[in-house]
């Protein structure tokens, strides 16, 4: 009871007025990281489509889709996505001094984990909706891949 009122007053005066601007600042790098995940998925699927249109090889298509399934675990390919979120380090260090925000690395790591999880979900959904082994008509495969990609991105 003795601490409640001063704590409430402190939060109301010193923290609450800044929450909206803090959230907006933090969402910039987070949003750009997730946008990068989306772009990476889009780019990788487009490469699969282009490769199939050149070769018309169903075996190669199957290999490419299998490789797509490893995308979330490819640190090299996911690195540009993760780098976008590393900007939080600077933003959070400023907050650390003003609001005693600790565990900055944890916030960044969790955000990157969510990005990897999002990519895992995207490639899994893509695989479930598109199975090269079920594609009898190779003429429609590229169109089908594109439709599945758009569905996943939606």
TrEMBL record:
Q: Give the domain of life.
A: Eukaryota
Organism per entry = Indicator maculatus (spotted honeyguide)
Q: Which Pfam families match?
A: Niban2 (PF26086)
Organism lineage:
Eukaryota, Metazoa, Chordata, Craniata, Vertebrata
Q: Write down what this protein is called.
A: NIBAN protein
Q: InterPro entries from the xrefs?
A: Niban-like, Niban_1/2/3_dom
Q: Which residues form the Niban 1/2/3 domain?
A: 9-154
Family to which this protein belongs = Belongs to the Niban family.
């Amino acid at each position: 009871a003795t601490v409640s009122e001063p704590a409430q007053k402190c939060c109301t005066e010193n923290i609450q007025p800044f929450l909206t601007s803090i959230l907006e600042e933090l969402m910039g790098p987070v949003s750009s990281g997730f946008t990068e995940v989306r772009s990476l998925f889009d780019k990788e699927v487009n490469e699969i489509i282009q490769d199939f249109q050149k070769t018309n090889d169903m075996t190669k298509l199957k290999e490419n889709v299998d490789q797509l399934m490893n995308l979330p675990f490819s640190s090299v390919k996911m690195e540009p996505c993760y780098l976008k979120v590393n900007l939080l380090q600077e933003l959070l260090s400023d907050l650390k001094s003003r609001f005693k925000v600790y565990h900055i690395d944890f916030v960044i790591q969790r955000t990157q984990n969510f990005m990897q999880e999002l990519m895992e979900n995207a490639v899994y959904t893509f695989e479930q909706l598109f199975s090269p082994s079920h594609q009898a008509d190779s003429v429609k495969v590229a169109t089908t891949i594109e439709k599945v990609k758009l569905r996943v991105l939606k």
